[in-house]
Design brief:
By secondary structure, the protein is an alpha+beta fold. It has three helices and six strands. The chain has a single domain, classed as Cytidine Deaminase, domain 2, CATH 3.40.140. A six-stranded mixed β-sheet has the order 1-6-5-4-2-3, sandwiched between helices. Bound molecules: tetrahydrodeoxyuridine. Tetrahydrodeoxyuridine binds near residues 44, 74 and 111.
Length: about 160
Amino acid sequence: MINHQIKIDFKEYPSVLELSEPFQSLCNEAIKALSGSHSPYSKFRVGAALLLQSGKILHGSNQENVAYPSGLCAERVALFNWGANHSGDPIVAMAVTAQTDEFEIMQPVASCGACLQVMAECEKMQEKPFEIILFLSDGPVWVMPGVDSFLPFLFFEKRLGGES
Ligand code: THU
């Protein structure tokens, strides 16, 4: 039996103000994206912003539905827009934040598994990772160098062809 341990590489900053530009501005864009959230059921607003190589910013916010599974997370709203309309312009970084009036959020909200898998697909499409910034507007910031930090055992397409 081999007991493996996996280390995850990410940086923590006490506040968005400690980030360099253009990441500070990107976080402000994610905060702006919160206003587009349609979240009457969870009352939990999530905003995402993508910084593209050209400098363009794409926004996403969670879009809920009365038929609950029909809704979509903020990250995937932004990433699918990129895939559909901007995939020739690589993603440099993605910032994600959340707010609710229902309780105090104590630490940055980590993206769900489905969003991580979509981030992985986008990294694969552009053949390079992008930084993922999870933050609270008045709290800590976590910066991951790529989706590998979350998904070390990522499902990847070569396995469909029998390669490991
Ligand atoms: N949500 C996101 O937008 N991103 C995530 O990664 C996790 C959850 C949304 C989905 C739903 O609208 C609300 O947060 C509560 O789960």
